[in-house]
Write a structure and sequence with these properties.
5-stranded antiparallel sheet; SH3 type barrels; 13 helices; alpha+beta; Translation Initiation Factor IF3; C8orf32 fold
């Protein structure tokens, strides 16, 4: 019956009401699709040391180590199966950059902590995949061997010098032509276009920014700060997003002002970063460098957005890249390329619900698109990120909203036919049990598909992300119009029209009909009574009633 319902929806939407859907003005993603879909070509994922930074040479500068992860209990360390060919050793190595410490030899294992650069580490084993078994806080742990050396680093002190304060300037610097961003949303303008969509030049006045940093120090030890020191604009700008994608707070030591940009510039260049703030209390100007401490917030699924927008997948973990490739493959199999934006959203909405069940155990992997695709289970952000990726790779503007809906929750906003709408795939896939057997049954709902803020805000409160204003109700009831009935005669007509189906659907205003009245009408037509499922609210004040056809 679901296929019949979807068929009716498509017929009405495409043939009866929507003659043409305009495409959205979104970035060209050919770079990433060409890369990921070329037969025999595997995108290389370049591991990157994660920044935990402390410049030496000045006692007033403190380490910056806050990682962008939700606090959770310390992971339990379990014995790792000997499938990695671990060779036992007993020696020491030094880290060349700050590294995550894991419970097993791979980035998919739980994280125990962080070791900073130039740290002496007791190595007890070498794995075939290049990871190292180490002693860490009186327990067994693992780090990547790519960023370790057996040679003890030599620290060369930089002579102390007197810093001359940078003079204040009111001039606005023009961004470099190689990577000129455009604009950022105006403060308080929730419906401003995503950065990159207009032509206004952003503020990049680094002179004015530096004049606001009151703390001044002598020369900093560049050797000990080598893992977060940058002497050119290109590398520093690339590193900024790498750090922001993994940390809520991080620091960068720039050679000079020519290597850095303002937060407004970075945010326009990387719209995936929702918020950028400078910690002026810890930032400092030195004679041979500029030490900046940033606090950032990435939009939900920002690493996927960046990969799709730029074609650069180097920031993705192996599981994230696998999920992106799978979604691109599924999109081709569904024929989404040739569908209207409405049909793309509807097809993906139904696919995710029909192929996924809500994970009541709330496993960590169920928060990810990889978990949804591999295990066919997910929680809210797994649903939301997956829907967003499907939309973005098919040139439909979409974002993921983090907020509150009785508990912490995530959902989407998608732009269809020029208007923004809310979508909550999770709440359209409710956990339903058969009243007779108690078994879980699949339920496909459209209660939160393409709805406006008036409907969504009754139960959802957005808290972060580029939140759009959704005012149109053009599509919400459109899909139910073929099943709408307001009189007993219209009920009979609906029954007769669907009599050859396993289920018969009726959509009507709440309190319009009772179950007894509907049963009486069916009895008059076919001398039989029926069993039905509990009515589903498809919009406030409107119900969808499913009759299990007793003639089938």
């Amino acid at each position: 019956m679901k296929n019949f319902l979807i068929g009716i929806i498509y017929t009405v939407v495409v043939a009866g009401c929507l003659a043409h859907f305009a495409g959205c003005d979104v970035p060209d993603i050919s770079a990433v699709t060409d890369l990921l879909l070329t037969p025999g070509v595997t995108a290389e994922v370049t591991p990157t040391p994660e920044p935990v930074t402390t410049p030496a040479g000045d006692p007033t500068v403190t380490p910056v180590t806050e990682v962008a992860e939700v606090p959770s209990p310390s992971p339990e360390v379990t014995d790792v199966p000997d499938v990695y060919g671990i060779t036992a050793v007993d020696d020491f190595v030094w880290t060349t950059g700050s590294l995550n410490v894991r419970t097993g030899p791979g980035s998919d294992y739980d994280k125990l902590g962080v070791i900073t650069g130039n740290t002496k580490v007791h190595r007890t084993g070498i794995c075939e995949n290049g990871w190292l078994r180490i002693e860490y806080k009186d327990t067994v742990a693992y780090i990547s061997g790519k960023y370790c050396t057996t040679t003890e680093p030599v620290v060369t002190k930089v002579p102390q010098a007197t810093l001359t304060p940078t003079p204040k300037s009111e001039a606005t610097l023009t961004p470099t032509a190689a990577s000129t961003p455009t604009s950022v949303p105006a403060a308080g303008d929730s419906n401003a276009e995503t950065p990159g969509s207009s032509t206004a030049v952003v503020n990049d006045d680094t002179d004015k920014l530096l004049a606001s940093i009151n703390s001044v120090g002598n020369g900093v030890d560049l050797a000990s700060a080598s893992n977060f020191y940058y002497d050119n604009e290109k590398d520093a700008t690339t590193a900024f997003f790498r750090y922001a994608s993994g940390y809520t707070t991080f620091s960068i030591l720039y050679k000079d002002k020519e290597c850095m940009h303002t937060p407004e510039y970075y945010q326009a260049l990387y719209p995936e970063i929702y918020k950028i703030e400078i910690d002026y209390s810890r930032s400092k100007r030195f004679s041979n460098g500029i030490y900046m401490v940033y606090k950032t917030e990435l939009v939900t699924g920002g690493q996927y957005i960046y990969a799709i927008r730029t074609g650069d997948t180097s920031y993705l973990k192996d599981t994230e890249l696998a999920a992106l490739k799978k979604i691109i493959k599924l999109s081709k199999e569904m024929g989404l390329e040739d569908k209207s934006d409405l049909d793309k959203a509807l097809t993906v909405h139904d696919y995710l619900i029909n192929n996924t069940r809500y994970d009541q155990t709330i496993a960590d992997i169920s928060h990810t698109p990889y978990g949804l695709l591999a295990n066919k289970t997910a929680v809210c952000d797994g649903y939301a990120k997956s829907f967003m990726i499907f939309m973005l790779v098919n040139n439909v503007e979409c974002n993921t909203i983090a907020g509150y809906a009785g508990e912490d929750h995530a959902w989407n906003q998608v732009r269809v036919d020029g208007e923004w709408y809310n979508v909550d795939v999770t709440w359209d896939d409710p956990v339903t049990r058969d009243t007779g057997t108690g078994e879980l049954i699949d339920t496909l709902s459209y209660t939160y598909f393409l709805v406006n803020d008036d409907i969504m805000n009754e139960s959802h409160t957005p808290e972060s992300g580029y939140v759009k204003k959704c005012t149109s109700d053009k599509y919400h009831m459109l899909k139910y119009k073929p099943f709408a009935c307001a009189t007993p005669e219209e009920v009979k007509a609906q029954i007769e029209r669907q009599i050859d189906e396993d289920s018969i659907f009726l959509v009507y205003e709440e309190n319009r009909f009772t179950r007894e009245e509907l049963n009486k009408l069916f009895l008059e037509l076919h001398n039989r009574t029926f069993y039905s499922r509990k009515p589903v609210e498809v919009r406030k004040g409107w119900l969808m009633y499913e009759i299990i056809n007793p003639l089938k």
